[in-house]
Amino acid sequence: MTNQLIEPQVHTPGELSAKAFADAQESLAGRDLCSIADLSTTEAAAILALAHKVKANPAAFRYALDAKQMVMFFEKASLRTRLTFEVAMNTSGGDAMFVDQTQSPLGERESLADMSRNVERWVQVIVLRTYSHDTITEMAQYATCPVINALSDHEHPCQALADFMTVEERFGGSARGIQFTYVGDGNNVAHSLMLLAAQLGAHCTIGTPKNYAPKAEVVAQARAIANITGSNITLVQDPVAAVAGANVVYTDVCTSMGFEHEATKRAPIFKPYQVNEELMAHAQPDAAFMHCLPAHRNAEVTDAVFDGPNSVVFEQAENRMHVQKALLLLLLGAKLPATPFAHIAAI
Length: 347
Known about the structure:
Layout: H1 18-28, H2 41-56, E1 69-74, H3 80-90, E2 95-100, H4 112-119, E3 125-129, H5 133-142, E4 147-149, H6 157-170, E5 179-183, H7 188-200, E6 203-207, H8 216-229, E7 233-236, H9 239-243, E8 248-251, H10 263-270, H11 277-280, E9 288-291, H12 303-306, H13 313-331
Parallel strand pairs: 1-2, 1-3, 3-4, 5-6, 5-8, 6-7, 8-9
Helix pairs in contact: 1-2, 2-6, 2-13, 3-13, 4-5, 6-7, 6-13, 7-8
């Protein structure tokens, strides 16, 4: 399926008019979400705006996806992603089916092209959690129904959307102008966060050890968007410099799934990037701590920070459900209730 990209422009919730939302709603219907870069800034803002509405008034969307079918093919273990997608679909009137691919990688038993041409005849949306990002883009190429990236080695777009929904809740409805810092491995999560920060006008600093920075092509994509939206994308190697003055401090595990063989090598390299009370002291006093979970407690983050008053990690986890429900509603072209959208800008 082909995604049409729109020129980036920053929208805060108060600036997203009913017309802008309606335009995004029309453009997103039937689309894939393989990457945050697939979205225009208007579309990203619309997903978040709808997620806030869904969270505030879930009953209004109870039957919006009546009789719709979603299949999830997961090559990797999952808690939050699986359950939040299932709950999102089921509480919108649809059905969710899970296929465990942890012992049988997609494309091994049957070509992705043939698989796509079968599955598209039975379901309305395909959700993939894979190792190779090419698996997702190839499935999207052949399937005529929407394909959603629920995590690949390149990106984790649903996580980033939920994270910035949480940021908007924390900072008065907008991420524009906030200082967002990610420290740790420049991995798939970092890629999606960097791209979405640029789209929403947040200033994003990525602090990583040497040789563990985000991919250069993703940095270039994010900076191209940031040049238009007025945000900044900064890469540093000093964790203290990265965190200085931050409104948000975010980290992830130092060894992602698929890189377990590097755990012993990585541990001493990433030790200076542990988010502890000393590091957090360089951020703003009310800085939020964020983590995509699961966390290795007292490895990349200490208990004192993880369980501290500024931690919003479980709010992030909850918001996975709301943002994914909004995403399903938009990609499946659901008929949305009129009342909650009379004033879409008022979140």
